[in-house]
Amino acid sequence: MARFRKLLAASVALAVGGTVGSAWAATEIQWWHAMGGALGETVNDIAAGFNRSQSHYVVKPVYKGNYTETMTAGIAAFRSGKGPHIMQVFEVGTATMMAAKGAIYPVHELMKDAGTPFDQSRYLSSVIGYYTSTDGKLLSMPFNSSTPVVFWNKAAFKKAGLTAAPKTWEEMGEASKKIIASGGASCGFTIGWQSWSMLENFSAWHDVPFATKENGFAGLDTEFAFNSPLHVKTIKQLADWQKEKVFTYGGRRGDGNPLFAEGKCAMLINSSAYYSGLKKSSKFDFGTAKLPYWSDVKGAPRNSIIGGATLWVLKGQHKEDYVGVAQFMSYMSDTFVQAFWHQNTGYVPITSDAYKLTKRIGYYDRNEGRDVAIEQMSGTPTANSKGLRLGNFVQIRDIINQELEAIWAGKKTAKKGLDDAANRGNKLLRKFEKANK
Q: Is residue 385 situated within a structural domain?
């Protein structure tokens, strides 16, 4: 694998253009991002590959903090006339970016204006669907995309006489109780990014609306629908399961991951991007499986939706700079570059060719479960499973977290908590609608 990584890295460096030239006099392109640590190093590798592939432009990656900090810094810099060419924005900021009139340069327009070939059919529909206009044109370039999956402890399952992860929610409860009874683990499962995994993706996976107006894609006058009987049933079930330790809440983001990595919970529902980290921190073999679904819901399972971030191009730079930005966007979606990113981070590739290449070299045979996220997102998305486009959603997620935690703590019933979350969230949707009419 180490040898392949070196070969792939060499291919990444020559993926576009193929000519190594001096970059000392090249035009600088600023790329602000939120990837720290090892992810930031991989970002630097990709930028260095592009810089070596031609001599006219130099992409300079700049780490600006977490997603919220990066987005806030980028918007402030743009307003002062000192914004970057490219800014990484997490998926819940999509509606906010779209509402930034005159600030964004849609990717489909950029590629056309720069004369750079751009075939949108190459990209996974479940990935780019999140970032397209109502008429299907790509607004920003998907970058680090992931989706929630089920990680399961093989040793704990074996001790309970189980050989595979549960497929349905009914089986989740049954398997968890058997594992607890066998002593394989003290908890059945835990979750992370609960709004994303248990409401947003739950809705898409069951092909039911998270919000009206196609989850916001069809208009700003949308309202939340995640307090339906099906959603209430599910959240109530988790709250009830807490009493038997079938379910244990560990925190809002990746806070619950240690419960799984330390063997306390036999399963974890969280982002596929945590795979590499869990591999390093777990002392047992684990598998990766698709999300559970209720067996009596017609049309389930459908497809899951993505999390992560995308690359937005900001206006305000010299016209000739955007030729280089377009070349870099093309480079970012190259088969070898995407395969390199996918294999070294745990995020999914954004093109089908990158997935096919990774499969062809036997990567998934050596790394069981790394293709589950891609398979789970396969298929043609519906109006309910395309994604979300909701204003003020960063703040709304905080509201959802607060209400879910009130339910887990027994302070509210599932219905009361979800109703309150929907009502509070709708008020912020109306504020966003009023501000952007």
A: no
Q: What is the pLDDT of residues 335-368, one digit of tens each?
A: 999 999 999 888 998 898 999 999 999 999 998 8
Check residue 431 and give left, alpha or beta (phi > 0: left; psi -120 to 50: alpha): alpha
Count each helix (H run) and each strand (E run) in the chain, helices first. Answer: 21, 9
Identity of the residue numbered 72 = T
Please state the length of the chain.
437
pTM (2 d.p.): 0.87
Condensed to tens digits (0 to 9), the pLDDT of residues 196-230 reads 999 999 999 999 999 999 999 999 999 999 999 99
Instruction: Give residues with Cβ within 8 angstroms of 128, minimum separation 6.
Output: 120, 138, 142, 350
Residue 293 to residues 204, 303, 337: CA-CA distances in angstroms? 11, 11, 34
Q: Would residue 380 count as lying in a domain?
A: no
Contact call for residues 33 and 66 (beta carbons, < 8 A): no
Peptide bond into 301 cis (omega under 30): yes
Q: In 3-state terms, what secondary structure has residue 14?
A: coil
DSSP letters along 341-398, please?
Answer: HHHHHSPBPSBHHHHHHHHHTTHHHHSTTTTHHHHHT-S---TTTS----TTHHHHHH
Nearest CA to 342 out of 320, 310, 362, 370 is that of 370
Residues 138 and 38 grouped into a single domain:
yes
**Do the domain assignments include residue 262?**
yes
Residue 204 belongs to some domain of the structure: yes
* Distance (Å, whole) CA 301 – CA 15: 37
Handedness of CA 267, 263, 362, 130 (dihedral sign): positive
Q: How would DSSP label each residue in 286-298?
A: EEEEPPPB-TTST
In the chain, the N- to C-terminal Cα span, in Å, equals 53
Question: Among residues 143, 432, 118, which one has the least CA distance to residue 312?
Answer: 143
Task: Identify which of 211, 199, 208 has the alpha carbon closest to the alpha carbon of residue 414.
Answer: 199
Q: Name the helix (H) or strand (E) containing 152.
A: strand 148-153
Range of the domain at 415: 148-304+391-435
Q: What is the CATH number of the domain that holds 281?
A: 3.40.190.10
Residues 403, 404, 407, 413, Cα dihedral to 10°: 70
- Structural domain total, the chain: 2
